[in-house]
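PT: before anyone asks, these are the final sequences, not the draft ones from last week. 370 residues across everything. Please model them as a single complex and drop the result in this thread when it's through.
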Amino acid sequence: MTPATQEATLPLSGRILQWRAEDGAWRSLASREDEADVEFQPWTGAAGVLIQADGDVWHRPSWLVAWSELPESGRVEVLRTDGQVLELTVIGRVWACEWIGQGEPITVQYDDGFPQTVRIDRPDYL
Amino acid sequence: MYADSSGAVTAGAVTDAADATPAGSQCATDVSQRSGAWACVTDTGATAATTASAPSAADTTTSLTGWCRSFSGCWWRYDDFHADFQSSQFSYGFGSTTLGSGSMYVNWQLVGAKTTTGPAYVILSSSTTSVTGSVALMNGANNTTGGSLLVGPYFYNWTTAHGPNTRYAWPSTSYVWTREYNSWDHNTPVQFSWHIPGWYGMYWYVWTRSIVSHTTVRNPNAIYRFDPASYETQAPAAAGWRAQ
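LR: through. Structure below.
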């Protein structure tokens, strides 16, 4: 990590978010081992959300982690199905959050846009 | 499953008794005679021969080799570290109504103990309200039944409604990396599932696994290489539906 790179480590998943301010690029690492291999990518403002589950959470509740880019406004809210607002970790112009769950959907709202329900259908290959 | 010995599609776990008929039996009948949800690789209602074709050429470390199954698609092995899958066309529906058809593509690349999945996409002819892609890394050697989950699963979700004939491609900036070096064998399944407007309480899915890859050492310096194209777990691909 260069001095110009900010980072945050999420406590449950251990996922590492890094933001490089000098060129507005970021990356998300599963572990420190990935640091040499995963390249920084420029911030694009895309709203797509990536989620990682700790195994078969549908049968064994465990952590899930979601991350994506912050919109221009910096306003994003993530809710669980019971209305709990998840605490976001924000670094540079990317965000991430974690929770313990069983594969329920989450709702992600950017700015004043229509809230998006993010489903994580249990894969049939499990 | 749509690459099994019967050529039929097996539904996922379904608890709704009214819809509990295995989808596989649906595919053996004409569409007009079907009931409940189904997903099939052919849309004719008939099942053709299901014998997997032989590899098109001798598997070597350098030549392009392939392996096709009549009711799922083809796996191609470009070299030790690069492979992909192209599905056959599949269709899905409910009762006598065919709701749509589609196809799926996935590319895998290996570097040391890392697997990168992507490009990966599904093309669906029907409108959707939500599409979810998932990727995981699993243990499982040639001809084994599945295997244990090693990393993931990871998910990407297209949350907004899309019209017909849309290509849902996993964003290149979000290709999934997985790293693991404690297992001799890896395979990487990829699933796409989709919800259709007006058909609530269920979703349809299609998935495939990569060709098995293998390492000769289990440490951070492990180098996984794809086995021959025909080296698959016993469940290399499937399509079906689930009650939500």
